[in-house]
Design a protein that fits this description.
Elements: H1 6-30, H2 51-71, H3 85-108, H4 119-128, H5 130-133, H6 137-158, E1 165-166, E2 179-182, E3 187-190, E4 213-215, H7 219-226, H8 230-236
Antiparallel strand pairs: 1-2, 2-3, 3-4
Helix pairs in contact: 1-4, 1-6, 2-3, 3-4, 3-6
């Protein structure tokens, strides 16, 4: 099987991050529900708020109104109860980011200004244009980087921890036992921060946050060079498999 081009790799990554954001963003809106506890926090005994807390509540209520006015977003069950500011900040940032990305893609492809739509519809629209984005490597990298940034911010706010499964064998590039399967992305990554491949176009050479990625079409070759079994890689992509979290990558 032919090696995918650098732009094809970039678009594969972009598609996976867009898919993750499509799953996560509705959950983020649910987190806007007033009084919903942050992940992992225990309920506290109700007490009279301090002046500082009261001031922050007023600011968060005002922020909730701005979110609704600017983006047409209404927190489920909205009432006078306070919203958590970091959640509404994330909603606003991701909403603005998706709008700007949608407009950038349409502008570069000569499609004119995109029609108004909510975030999920815009993400689906961007994903549907990825084949045409392939002719513009810089745009492809921008779509990948922005969708990755927004998906990661969404995951941090939600308190999600991505499933990671250890893959037997050694990385063909750095010879460390650092290969990990990421079932949600259907990809194998080397999580060694010092790992660099020899492909001049690969982002692992220039971006400290990026890790070398092997997508599904490359798993056979990876299994051969890493000294592992292709069937083991396939099995590790089962999201119900025994997984453990490790360093965030890619």
């Amino acid at each position: 099987m032919a090696e995918p081009t650098p732009t094809a790799r970039t678009l594969q990554d972009a598609a996976l991050w867009i898919e993750a954001l499509l799953r996560q963003f509705p959950e983020l809106l649910t987190e806007l529900a007033p009084g919903r506890p942050s992940p992992g926090t225990a309920p506290e005994r109700r007490r009279a708020p301090s002046p500082e807390t009261a001031r922050r509540v007023r600011e968060e209520r005002r922020d909730a109104l701005l979110v609704e006015q600017r983006h047409g977003l209404t927190a489920p069950g909205y009432s006078a109860a306070p919203l958590r500011l970091h959640v509404s900040d994330a909603v606003r940032d991701i909403t603005d980011g998706v709008i700007e990305l949608d407009e950038a893609v349409h502008d570069k492809l000569g499609l004119g200004r995109p029609r108004h739509a909510r975030v999920p519809q815009r993400l689906v629209r961007i994903a549907g244009l990825l084949d045409r984005v392939a002719g513009h490597p810089a745009l492809a990298a921008h779509v990948r980087d922005e969708s990755r940034r927004m998906a990661r911010r969404c995951a941090r706010v939600l308190g999600d921890s991505e499933s990671i499964v250890r893959v037997r064998g050694r990385c063909p590039w750095c010879d460390s036992v650092s290969l990990r399967a990421f079932p949600a992305r259907r990809a194998v990554l080397c999580v060694n921060p010092a790992c660099r491949c020899d492909a001049a176009e690969c982002d692992c050479r220039t971006d400290p946050a990026y890790r070398h990625v092997w997508h599904e079409g490359e798993w056979e070759g990876l299994a051969h060079t890493a000294g592992t079994d292709r069937a083991e890689i396939d099995a590790s992509m089962d999201e119900t498999a025994d997984a453990r979290t490790g360093p965030r990558a890619g």
